[in-house]
Amino acid sequence: MVCNHFSSIDPVLIQSACSNRLITWMMAKEYMDLPVLGRVFRLLDVIPVDRGSRETGPLRTALRRLGEGRVIGIFPEGTFSTTGELLEFQTGVALMAIRAKVPVYPAYLDGTQRNKGMAQAFIVRSKSVVKFGPEVIFDRSDTSKENIEAATAKIRLAVELLRMDVDACRQMR
Length: 173
Fold this sequence. Notes:
Elements: E1 2-3, H1 10-17, E2 23-28, H2 35-43, E3 47-49, H3 57-67, E4 71-73, H4 92-100, E5 106-110, H5 118-123, E6 129-132, H6 145-172
Parallel strand pairs: 1-5, 2-3, 2-4
Antiparallel strand pairs: 5-6
Helix pairs in contact: 3-4, 4-6
């Protein structure tokens, strides 16, 4: 599962909409050090990722979890978008999907507490919308750089189309 990223509350909102299946999130490693939430994240089997690092441990862990039939949740922008526009997507999602031979499903989340800290995002009310899309179809035959980049572009486009649909629905209200 891939989704855009505006706020630290995003995984909670997406998980609440997918209550029939636990999502194993890939999350910035620094959140694992938070006193109470770090314990919760470990209980939920969150996969910590050191942003900016090229370490392969998180990728290997995610591939194992996918092999176990789990759903992996990823924010491929790698950080919060502060403008509301989608940022560039990292290629790790496409690489994992190709290697594990699993589908990728896009989601778009809007209305969350942008540019707020974790505590504020949980306390301040917001009206959020999450829209899920169909499986993103792309070539899973090889892991060449060109193929991974093309798959990443298709994944990003799928999220962008969901964003456009949500925006159009909001304008109709």
